[in-house]
Amino acid sequence: MLPDGDERELESSEEGGAAGEERRPERHGNTYHSLYGYCRPCGQGAAPGDGSAAETPSGEDFSLSLLDTNLPVEAETELRSFLAKRLTKGALFEGMGNVVSVGLSIPEYKVGCYYCRFQQENLLEMATLESDANAQEYVVCFLGGSEKGLELFRLELDKYIQSLKINLDLEQKTLETSVKPHLSSWFENAVCPIQRVVQLFQEKLAFLLHAALSYTPVEVKNADERTEKDISRFLAAASLQGLVQEGTMTSLCIAMTEEQHKSIIIDCTGPQPQLHNAGSNRFCEDWMHAFVNGAEGGNPFLFRQILENFKLKAIQDINNLKRFIRQAEMNHYALFKCYMFLKNCGSGDILLKIVKVEHAEMPEARNVVTVLEEFMRETSVA
């Protein structure tokens, strides 16, 4: 996650100091891909999960053959040379994507590069069982934007590789019909969903942010497949999963479902989605404006950074509230500080639910939370 101050740094190129207009090409074009067959003799590769460089094949013990690319010839040769060096050093482990910045003979010169070595899904088990067979593997590269921008999407790209494994087949027919379209659409499918959701929902994005933070169930109706997937990916990216204890998120999801008895319904029948049973708060509305204002620049990497900053601020608020609650167990003035914090932070409704779940087994803290709930109810009634 990135602090607010890193926003300008992310938009800049690796050379730094680019003007706003010069950053815009990072948006679309000039995104590239390359897929290679990676073949090494049996027994030469490191075992899965083994980081030993001694068992990694030398440059003479493997072949890297081009299967598909949209790079110019000279740039592809440079990329292959870079990958060969990484393979020689043992820097590519199966299924683990990496992001670096590479300089190639392309108009952008220096671009972010995600690369990953993997095996075809149905061959992974066979390679383990048949140790006498040569291990046929693949190396895929996605290039575009900056290193810092692509790093924000590394998990999405790792998942994208999983779907590539399923589509990949040694037959040329499958390569043409399934694999090449999958490779050429990596940017649209892995990087642009957040941007498309922002453009679709506009001011209504606050409701999605609120649903993601509170783990409120969402049901999408009358949407095409891509829109439904985009919304699902946005909600997953905006949630605090992985940042807050897993047990807390599970309990919160159950509590929200039991409390409301209704999912948020997103109806995409018309040009603008209609939301039913949706809630929001000042915190989510403030961050919605940050997204909408960022839409003018059209930079998908910036949207992801704003989303990371949104989650970072939510985590900071949760930690501050938990600290105030610990103090309030011994100090009545700290209890008042808790109340004022909840009142002014803009997301008191969600924060209180989260800490209530986390402190369910702690009697003193639970008592503080109960008092705060009563304060907040009285304030809302008044």
Automatic annotation (TrEMBL):
<dbReference type="GO" id="GO:0005802">
    <property type="term" value="C:trans-Golgi network"/>
</dbReference>
<protein>
    <submittedName>
        <fullName>Protein Njmu-R1</fullName>
    </submittedName>
</protein>
<feature type="region of interest" description="Disordered">
    <location>
        <begin position="1"/>
        <end position="29"/>
    </location>
</feature>
<feature type="compositionally biased region" description="Basic and acidic residues">
    <location>
        <begin position="20"/>
        <end position="29"/>
    </location>
</feature>
<feature type="compositionally biased region" description="Acidic residues">
    <location>
        <begin position="1"/>
        <end position="14"/>
    </location>
</feature>
<dbReference type="Pfam" id="PF15053">
    <property type="entry name" value="Njmu-R1"/>
</dbReference>
<dbReference type="InterPro" id="IPR028280">
    <property type="entry name" value="Njmu-R1"/>
</dbReference>
<dbReference type="GO" id="GO:0099041">
    <property type="term" value="P:vesicle tethering to Golgi"/>
</dbReference>
